[in-house]
Design goal:
Mean pLDDT: 89
Low-confidence stretches: none
CATH architecture: Orthogonal Bundle
Number of helices: 5
Strand order of the largest sheet: 1-2
Number of strands: 2
Shape: elongated
Helix content: 40-55%
Largest sheet: 2 strands, antiparallel
Structural class: mainly alpha
CATH class: Mainly Alpha
Strand content: 5-15%
CATH superfamily: Winged helix-like DNA-binding domain superfamily/Winged helix DNA-binding domain
CATH topology: Arc Repressor Mutant, subunit A
Distance between the termini: 24 Å
């Protein structure tokens, strides 16, 4: 992941509703969710949700697949992991670090 991609992903996630949508898709796993399921789960209007899903897809954080009449949205784990890797690339001054908890790098 390069700097522009990271900024795009972080920008997309820097909105409360989009962050909630993305987290719901991460929790849903590889099966993903339909927009209707997401809207019901998050109590958000469908047209608003559509806008947020479009922004997340544009940032590469979600994928969409047509299954019959339904659209299935899924978290793009590769992009998510790329962002996490970019953010932690120089963790612990370049030494190997197994970040398992919020304070794990305090020992580095």
């Amino acid at each position: 992941m390069n700097e522009d991609q990271a900024i795009g992903a972080l920008s997309a996630l820097a909105h409360m509703q989009r962050l909630r949508v993305f987290r719901a898709l991460v929790v849903a796993g590889p099966g993903g969710l339909t927009p209707s399921s997401l809207a019901d789960q998050l109590a958000v209007a469908r047209n608003t949700l559509s806008f947020h899903l479009k922004e997340l897809a544009h940032a590469g954080l979600v994928t969409v697949e047509q299954q019959g009449r339904n659209l299935i949205y899924r978290a793009n784990y590769e992009q998510m992991n790329g962002l996490l890797g970019y953010l932690t690339e120089h963790c612990c001054q370049g030494a190997a670090c197994q970040v398992g908890s919020a304070d794990a790098c305090a020992a580095c």
